[in-house]
Amino acid sequence: MARKQPPALALAAILATAIVLIQALSVPFFAAPATHLEPRDLPVAVAGPDALVQQLSSAKPGAFEITKVADVSAADEMLRHREAYAAFIAGPDGIALHTASAASPTVAALLSQAAAQLGGGKPVPVTDVVPTDPTDPRGAGFASGFLPLALTSMLAGIALILLVRNRRARLLGLGVYAALTGLVGAAVLQSWLGVLPDNYLANATAIGLFALAAAGLVAGLGAALGRAGIGLGALLVFLIGNPLSGVAAAPELLPQPWGEVGQWLPVGAGSTLLRSAAYFDWAGGTQALWVLTGTALLGLVLVAVGRADLGEQTAEPAGPARDDARKLAETVAV
């Protein structure tokens, strides 16, 4: 017996209510991390006496993860290897600040304010050891340019699983999408918009791997779980992964453990890997590389072994209805 469908008006009202509930939950999920940005165990270096370490620790308890180094050269080396976001330098004229704004312009700005407070309100000299691209000093272009990559990768995974019924064709589609996204995305962000430095091969590789991981995860979950899997993939890649990514700030500025959780999802790992590839010669991107590689492989395996369709086909009618259908087909054939 066919299941009785709810009336159209009731179904429309239920769908509208469900979407509004999702909206009510997603708005604070996107907005809350951005409104509570502050350092939380933020890695910094200190080249100076123990008194400066103590002063920095007591000024903002729990804000910094401090590594004391011997001199300025050691501090700058930590910045170039993406082991710290900034270094506080004690000199004869007071405190100086060395930053790596390429890792996060937001962090560089926040720490400039913190250094001024440590210096008694006096201007503090700031040296940007690893600067952002001159055309994108605040990093807004990087963050805004990365968002469409996440959105289109999610849509690519959905389209491949809904419209392509052949497993090999889906795998080929994922590979072609990732390669083209890497090549074209790097060209747009680097050459057209100028928000990435001239390191095209590294930029394209990082973007391509991210695209494969994000699209492959959505497609793989769809192949394994059907439409519910597509929804789960969209949640992980975009609705949850995007606000927890720290792409516009830094994961250490988000409420914990959400900043760390975001680095295990494609968008957070992808943005971290792209920064490392573009500005730091891949330094600091090991975890992100493994996360994206593992996610991509998982997605590809699920696509390879998952269902070829989502079971949308109409079931064959049973009993008298099936017999009538057969007789009608025979009549048409005659």
From the helix content, strand content and strand pairing, which structural class follows? alpha/beta
Low-confidence stretches: 312-318
Give me the number of helical elements: 12
Strand order of the largest sheet: 2-1-3-4-5
Cα-to-Cα separation, first versus last residue: 31 Å
- Main sheet record: 5 strands, mixed
Helix percentage: 55-70%
Strand content: 5-15%
Q: Write down the oligomeric state.
A: single chain
- Arithmetic mean pLDDT: 86
- Indicate how many domains the architecture comprises: 2
Rg calc: 26 Å
DSSP E strands, number: 5
What shape does the CA trace take?
A: elongated
Helix/strand order, N-terminal first? HEHEHEEHEHHHHHHHH
Write a structural description.
- By secondary structure, the chain is of the alpha/beta class.
- The chain folds into two domains: 42-128, D-Maltodextrin-Binding Protein, domain 2; 140-305, no CATH class.
- It is 61% helix and 8% strand.
- The chain contains twelve helices and five strands.
- The protein has a five-stranded mixed beta sheet, with helices on both faces.
- Helix 5 packs antiparallel against helix 6, helix 6 runs antiparallel to helix 7 (200-225) and helix 6 (167-192) runs antiparallel to helix 11 (286-305).
- The radius of gyration is 26 Å and the shape is elongated.
- The protein starts with 7 loop residues before the first helix and ends with a helix.
Summarize the structure.
Keywords: Membrane, Transmembrane, Transmembrane helix. This protein has 334 residues and is α/β, with parallel strands linked by helices.
Element layout with pairings:
Layout: H1 8-35, E1 42-47, H2 50-59, E2 64-68, H3 72-80, E3 86-91, E4 94-99, H4 105-118, E5 126-128, H5 140-163, H6 167-192, H7 200-225, H8 227-239, H9 258-262, H10 266-279, H11 286-305, H12 320-333
Transmembrane segments: 142-164, 171-194, 200-223, 230-250, 288-305
Protein name: Membrane protein
Keywords: Membrane, Transmembrane, Transmembrane helix
